[in-house]
Amino acid sequence: MAIDAVAAKNAFSEMKNSFGFGSDGIACHFINIAFQVISQSLCDIFNFSINTGVFPETWRTTRVVPIFKNGERDERSNYRPISVHPVMPRLFEKLVYDQLCKHLDKHKHQYIFQSGFRTLHSVETCLLKSTND
Question: Measured between alpha carbons, how far is residue 59 from residues 56, 63, 74, 81, 116 in Å?
């Protein structure tokens, strides 16, 4: 299965459009502006990565930023770290996840009572099954 530009556009439109940037220095907002121009090239990169089994090393780097909670600004304990991941690997992971889930659902490869990581399933459906049993 190959990733196409339509699937990439749909997945990208679901992502939060922010001005924050990951370790690659590219903000989601700017990719959104240029997406129609770069979408086919992105799909080619994603498909090449899938076919070769190589995930770009630069996509594995995350930028950690301290966010102020409350109290004195001079104390380190008043900050919490957040990880800001680059946009491209988040989009790539979303596309692969969507394709994998569609494949598993289509060919019925998941256990019928699998609740985690499935649409319309949750801890509640798992608890209901356990309670009914």
Answer: 5, 11, 33, 20, 26
Angle (nearest 5°) at CA 20 between 14 and 21: 95
Q: What is the pLDDT of residues 16-63, one digit of tens each?
A: 777 677 778 888 888 888 888 999 999 999 999 999 999 988 888 888
Q: How far apart are CA 35 and CA 8, in angstroms?
A: 9
CB–CB of 113/129 below 8 Å?
yes
Contact 58, 104 (CB under 8 A): no
CB atoms within 10 A of CB 100: 13
Q: In the structure encoding, which two tokens stand for residue 21, read together? A: 């940037």
Q: Are 88 and 26 in contact (CB under 8 A)?
A: yes
Q: Tell me if residue 65 falls in helix, strand or coil.
A: strand
- Identify residue 15 by its one-letter amino acid code: M
